[in-house]
Write a structure and sequence with these properties.
CATH superfamily of the largest domain: Fido-like domain
CATH topology of the largest domain: Fic-like fold
Largest sheet: 2 strands, antiparallel
Radius of gyration: 26 Å
Number of helices: 21
CATH architecture of the largest domain: Orthogonal Bundle
Shape: elongated
Strand content: 5-15%
CATH class of the largest domain: Mainly Alpha
Order of helices and strands: HHHHEEHHHHHHHEEHHHHHHHHHEEH
Amino acid sequence: MIKRPPSLINKPFAQITEQNPASLGDYLKLHAPLDDKGRYLHFDELRFRLPQGLDHSLAWSVVKSARSLQLTTILALGESAIPCKLLLTPAMHMAISESDRHTTKAALEWMCSKIGEHKHVQYLLNDLIEDEAISSSQLEGAATTTKVAKDLLKRQRSPRTPDEKMIVGNFKMMQFAWQNRHKALSAGLIAEMHKVGTEGIDDEKYHPGALRISDDVIVEDGDGNTVHIPPPAKGLQQRLENLAAWANADHHDVENSDYLHPLLKAITLHFSIGFEHPFRDGNGRVARSLFYWYLFKHDFAAFRYIAISTLLKTAAIQYGKSYLYVETDEMDLTYFADYQCRVIIRAIAEFKKAYSKTQENMEAFNVFLLSSGLYKQLTDKQKTVFQVAKNSTPQTFTAVNVKENLGCSYNTAATTLNGLVDLNLFTKEKIGREWVYTMLDADQIISNWQA
């Protein structure tokens, strides 16, 4: 459990000057929204970093007095319309900059044109789409390995367990977010997103697409402690409509005094759904899908291939704390937004790394193609599949996923894969009712071609 902040002291400097003037300099150093490392610390963390001998209530009051000068009200949440405030931190500025530079539709098109192999890049990106669905499910407790989950989505086989159904549901939800990105947000669209993502998993548990009608839903931590009691079910429909109206309003005009970058607005939507908890279960998945939906809507197309949940699940406790820090400190959204932005910065870096690796591997592969004479023997589709395989993006291929990714017929996809087997580049085995193809080890391929 986190340590809640102490009660604030009115006019803390007056009390310090009167009771302990010798320590005034130490308290003055704390009079800033961020610490000397640029961190926006909650009292739960700040208390361990305070100089020895300082009164914690006074120190916290000094920090809060500095923050109050810069916090801006963003929206109101809950039954009593609690104002939620935000302060821009260095991490937010950096995440906004990285998003503007590397994740827009224009940036994505530039990346594809620079590589010059659009089909190969598209295959890589389609693979990355799966990562968010898988990691978001694992974050919610799905006990399925990433390898098995990848196989499930690539082979498009029917899910066999509730965990596999969750992964397929999340994948459908992400597809829904992309396909409906041009629609205005409404309580109905949020409910439809929930239905798409949870229907058929355990309908008695999830109640797909239905807003909760009782107040018996609570959020617990891993030890069974209650950490969040959502606002009452009464008025929930209207509160979601109010949230949708806020989301649909234009906050992106730089001339607007209420300007808010789309990334920060998407993060706020993410938090808001988690706070309202409109469904009996599956709220986290809907919240993260809405985050993506909003970015898709505003042409940050590359986020379709950036898996935020992959990083969130590696620090799930901190993810949970970022929610609690907001609620225990007067609905200060800065904690949640700052944490999310730090995750986004890392996620974009991983996306750029995957792109750079693809570029390097393609260059090396092209040298191999030319020097070995293999290039002349491959069809265009075989080149694409082989390039992707060499980059180790998908471990296995089937005629179904090649058909989907290359936009060709099933027979053409099967011919493409069987041709790679004939050229001693791939091997195949029958799993269930379909053939699964795998590229041979690089050393084996070289050996085959030298023989």
